[in-house]
Amino acid sequence: MKELFPTEIVEYTNENYWTKRHIKSKIIYFVIIILLVVLIYILPFIQIDLSTQSRGNIRSVNENNTLQSPITAEISQISLQENKEVKKGDTLIWLKTDAINVQMDRIKQKQSENNSFISDIQYLLQGINHGIVTSKYRAEHNQYISKLREQEVTYKQAEKELQVSKKLYQKGVESQFDYNQIESKHQTAQSALSSAKNTFISNWQAEKTRLELENKDLQSELEKLYKEESQYYIIAPASGRINQYSGILDKNFIIAGQTIAQIVTNEDLIVECYVTPSDIGYIHEKQAVNIQMDAFDYRQWGLLSGVVYEIMPDVATVNDQPFFKVRCQVKENYLQLKSGHKGYLKRGMTLTCRFMLTKRSLADLIFDKVDNWLNPKLINNEN
């Protein structure tokens, strides 16, 4: 068979040159193909941590306590200054109680008077006159004795007349009619004597009951004033530090509902952050969280470690965006440099929380991305 190219010139042909130049590219091509196959094979085995970030701040467990005046009054004494440490139950402001003291004294005086009247009435009802102390019931006792003596004289006179008339009637000297009239007069005198006693006793018993009821009403009014008096002393509702003091002084007037200061409580500090509704399903109690403080460069100070301890069930709105409040406890209340210097947490500091949501393989992530491209319904929901 006749050769197309002599052996001597084949080495210098274009075809031979092209083959020599492209043999390395074939190797690279095969290596890439092998790497792609290996990569696709190991995609399901490569796990990646998925996390989400949310903004938050440092706060105490409860809100700050606001000191307000419950009434309108003049300040008699004040024990407040900015940043002062106070304890729960400390009296911080004394308001003038002159007006309420006058009312209380009037009620106590009236109660004391009524008690004296009640004591005298009890003596009168028992027939004891040496224990009566008030002029009112000494006069009534004298009136009672005078009335009884008058009625007793009338009764004794009627008793004598009845005895004489009875003897005359028995001897036939006096008629039945005259005897009956004298007997009737005797009964009238006896009834008048008994009625006088009963009238005084009934009036005293009724007066005693009225005074006792009046004392109960006075006591209720006094207890109401005691409760009102407690409002004249503004007391610290919690232990903490005075903040945003308004600067009012002695002799100043304050009105009901006026804000005087705030008490920043000495409670443990917590982290409160805001998680979007799309991520809240991954958050659970006792979940670990890393906290990056804005005030401390994490490259130098590091991150705080914490744990989720409460997830608010209701959605909150921040800047017209829905969020769920998530509260976290921090293991330490400070960050520390390598030199040993500590930076302590303070209320109001802003931060970023990093929550570990889940672990996903690379294959899952690629599938999710492709599914987002190909699923119009999901795309519409996201839009």
UniProtKB/TrEMBL annotation:
Domain (LcnD-like barrel-sandwich hybrid): residue spans on this chain: 66-264
Primary localization class, coarse: membrane
Key words, A-Z: Coiled coil, Membrane, Transmembrane, Transmembrane helix
GO cellular component, one term: membrane
Transmembrane segments: 27-46
InterPro entries for this protein: Beta-barrel_AprE, BSH_LcnD, MFP
Subcellular location: Membrane
PANTHER family: MEMBRANE FUSION SUBUNIT OF EMRAB-TOLC MULTIDRUG EFFLUX PUMP (PTHR30386), TRANSPORT PROTEIN COMB (PTHR30386:SF26)
Name by which UniProt lists this protein: HlyD family efflux transporter periplasmic adaptor subunit
Organism: Dysgonomonas capnocytophagoides
Taxon lineage: Bacteria, Pseudomonadati, Bacteroidota, Bacteroidia, Bacteroidales
